[in-house]
Amino acid sequence: MTVFVGRSFPAVLSGLLPGVALQDGEAPPTVWSGLRPTDRVCSGVDADGIWQHQVAVAHWPGSAAAHPPNTIWDQTIITPPRSDYGQVMSRKAFQLEVWNTHRGAAETLTGIALAGNGGMEIEDPEFPVRFEPGESFTYSGTVPQLGSVKIADVATFTFTGLDAVAFAVTGTRLTVCAVRPDWSDPFTETISYKTSIVTADDTSEQRRSLRSIPRYGASYRISGLSARESAWLENLVYGCQPLVWGVPWWPERMPLLADASAGDQVLAVSTANLPTFEVGALVMVWVDFWTWEAATITAVASGSVTIDTPLVSDWAAGVWVVPMRPGQLSTSVQLVGPTNWIHAGTFEFVCEAHQ
């Protein structure tokens, strides 16, 4: 006897039929299509709130209903289909389940193809792998701490004679200071070189440059003008101060000249006489405090920049394209709160030309 919440069904589990978690407002999957007249299907929510299906061989009069659009049967499924890690500060490990929901046919996994610059790895089994009806396998994988700024990797599982199924991983390894400057104070840029000076007895000097690329610094005032923005600023300072930041070089921001769609890797933007737009540097497409996307520049032309990974979102012409430098926040930051919902302070960064 299998007991579900509020209902009881006599059923005998036939094969491995994992539970399927429902999202809020989602209708439960229907499993009537393709049933034999002698099959009995029992469905309901178990004590953990998971919708379960069990099949028992028994007399079931009547014919099968039409195949509904929300069925989970007769296909291959990956759960979860994607993982969004947000800010990646350390190595991430994950597990995913590949499930053959065909009730009368075994399927063969012939390969796993990885795409993207994020460095995702999956522990590959020896191929081919046979999935019996209703059988599932769990695969483990990792996303490394170091690598491309933006993580947008896809693992594609290929089965013989079936459409491929994919698992996606997204995230960023960069802490972006995406707050627009408070222009009541100027944006201050500093450029520092390092020189070795050897002085002879006759007071003549020999000077030798020790830094081929100058070190940059930036200092500007930031204001959080809402409770949400102020809380975000505090979290940045307390949680991300020792990390590498993406520091927007706001004086060199330029508008996006043409719409950019998800999947594009070329941004139409004027780069003339703007030295921060350089190969190996960082760039951010910016709309507001919360809406932005960062990547690494791989090529620069007078009217465009090419980035290392495809865009995840669509961006309309006119939004800001802001070059960035990798940098670290100063060891002392003072946030002043004139009210309980406004915070302001001067952020100072020590930056390099590019990574």
Q: How many DSSP-defined strands?
A: 27
Distance between the termini: 62 Å
Helix coverage percent of residues? under 10%
Question: How many helices in DSSP terms?
Answer: 1
Overall average residue pLDDT: 79
Coarse morphology: elongated
The rounded Rg comes to 28 Å
The biggest beta sheet is recorded as: 12 strands, mixed
In percent, how much strand structure appears in the residues?
Answer: 35-45%
Order of helices and strands: EEEEEEEEEEEEEEEEEEHEEEEEEEEE
Give the uncertain stretches in residue-range form: 1-23, 26-46, 50-70
How would you classify the helix and strand content by structural class? mainly beta
Describe this structure in words.
This protein has 355 residues and is mainly beta. It is 4% helix and 45% strand. Strands 14, 15, 18, 19, 20, 21, 22, 23, 24, 25, 26 and 27 form a twelve-stranded mixed beta sheet that branches. The longest helix is centred in the middle third of the chain and has 14 residues, at 227-240.
Topology summary:
Layout: E1 2-4, E2 7-9, E3 39-45, E4 51-57, E5 76-79, E6 82-87, E7 92-100, E8 107-115, E9 121-122, E10 129-131, E11 136-143, E12 150-159, E13 165-172, E14 175-176, E15 188-192, E16 195-199, E17 205-209, E18 215-224, H1 227-240, E19 245-248, E20 254-255, E21 266-268, E22 282-286, E23 292-301, E24 304-307, E25 320-329, E26 336-339, E27 342-351
Parallel strand pairs: 6-13, 14-19
Antiparallel strand pairs: 1-2, 3-4, 5-7, 7-11, 8-10, 8-12, 9-11, 12-13, 15-18, 16-17, 18-27, 19-25, 20-25, 21-24, 22-23, 22-25, 23-24, 25-27, 26-27
